[in-house]
Design goal:
With 389 residues, the chain is an alpha/beta fold. It has helices spanning 2-6, 10-21, 25-36, 54-67, 117-131, 146-154, 169-177, 194-205, 229-249, 267-277, 315-323, 337-346, and strands at 42-47, 72-78, 104-110, 136-141, 157-162, 183-186, 218-220, 256-263, 283-287, 292-299, 302-309, 326-334, 357-358, 364-368, 377-382.
């Protein structure tokens, strides 16, 4: 089932989500497999009171994402309705503009007194959607109760949608809700009172003290016309990059020098020196798709990797022909190789691979072009042991 799910089959996706929602053992097993899967989605929470125009806004965000070439899932969470197996009446009406577009998947989820609660069910469904290759998940919640706050916490970032003309809305939102907003959206911003809502948000933010903290931007939109949606999506990207940076910053110790790659004409003759030095070859292997033979020599917490070309037109052979033997690359180990790949790309760093690749022993890696690193080819290696539960 995971295989069919990974192929993007929409029927399998729908069946998989039902299995998970129903809490079947098969569903739980599937969720575990999905969590081990390397694919990750950006989870965007969209919350705000009923009547704020969230669904129209989500339509516009979806349109923007599709034009950007991204696959989208919309999860509409309604804690007040009974469980119906993803077949709420509204499902047939929602997202009709995307009928026939397999890149958009819509699903509603209703509360049913689920074991573990709605938030954990939502998290499970997000894992399934990620494995199914959905790059962005828009999680829509219907209000601002405890369920919604928990769901907002499982999102990577949350947009709080407000509308002008609802009186003291901002004041009444203070308790617990302002805090979940990474982005404020003033929707229906052509209405009278938009300035006032914005002023109230800014006044409240003035109290925030932490200078390094993310200050939620205030974006004005009109869901009906799509005005401001581009600005909203740019804010989403900035916020996602900030969140990733923050995650990385909290754990600098997770970055390690994994190995230093040295290109040699012949491993057999090169290892003589290293062995005389006192290093031992721990493993030697041929990586077919890179057409290279490698030998690893452990050195402290790190390693030296000797690289020998197996074919005359391989990358290493070309390197040897142009530059001779010598330092070829430095490899840094990171906890989450996918997050690092996305983060570097987002920041305009020149990444040398189209996607994260799978190497010998199943380890995952990609290369950063020397143009971005000060002249040294850099390999980023994933921490394969990091996925355990
Ligand atoms: Co390497």
């Amino acid at each position: 089932m995971l295989e069919r799910l990974r192929s993007g089959d929409v029927r399998t996706l729908a069946r998989a989500i039902s299995l998970v929602e129903e809490g079947t053992p098969q569903g739980a097993q599937l969720v575990r497999a999905c969590r081990r899967d390397a694919r990750k989605s950006l989870r965007i929470g969209i919350t705000g009171s009923p009547g704020a125009g969230k669904s129209t806004l989500i339509d516009q965000m979806t349109r923007w994402l599709r034009q950007d070439g991204q696959t989208v899932a919309v999860l509409a969470i309604d804690p007040s309705s009974a469980y119906t197996g993803g077949a709420l009446l509204g499902d047939r009406i929602r997202m009709q503009g995307f009928a026939g577009d397999a890149g958009v998947y819509f699903r509603s989820m209703a509360s049913r007194g689920a074991k573990g609660g709605l938030a954990s069910a939502t998290e499970d469904v997000c894992a399934v959607l990620a494995a199914a290759g959905r790059q962005v998940i828009l999680i829509e919640t219907m209000g601002v109760g405890q369920d919604e706050i928990e769901i907002a916490e499982l999102a990577d970032l949350t947009a709080l949608v407000l509308v002008p003309g609802m009186g003291d809305e901002v004041q009444s939102l203070k308790a617990g809700v302002m805090e979940i907003a990474d982005i404020f959206v003033i929707n229906k911003s052509d209405r009278e009172g938009a300035e006032q809502v914005e002023a109230e948000i800014l006044a409240m933010q003035g109290l925030a003290a932490d200078r390094d903290a993310w200050v939620a931007p205030v974006i004005r939109t009109m869901g009906t016309s799509g005005a401001g949606v581009k600005e909203l999506m740019e804010a989403v990207q900035r916020c996602a990059a900030y969140e990733r940076k923050k995650k990385n910053r909290t754990a600098p110790s997770e970055l390690r020098l994994d190995h230093i790659g040295v290109a040699v004409k012949s491993i057999a003759s090169a290892r003589r020196f290293y062995e005389t030095l006192g290093l031992l070859v721990s493993e030697e292997e041929v990586v077919e798709h890179e057409r290279v033979k490698t030998a690893m020599l452990p050195l402290g917490d790190s390693r030296i990797e000797l690289l020998e070309a197996t074919e005359s037109d391989s990358t290493i052979a070309k390197f040897l022909a142009n530059r001779g033997e010598g330092l070829h690359h430095i490899a840094v180990r990171v906890k989450d190789v996918d997050a690092m790949f996305a983060r570097l790309k987002l920041q305009g760093i020149r990444v040398a691979n189209e996607e994260v690749r799978v190497g010998a022993g199943g380890h995952r890696y990609f290369f950063v072009h020397p143009a971005s690193t000060g002249g040294v080819l850099m390999e980023i290696v994933g921490d394969s042991a990091g996925e355990g539960e």
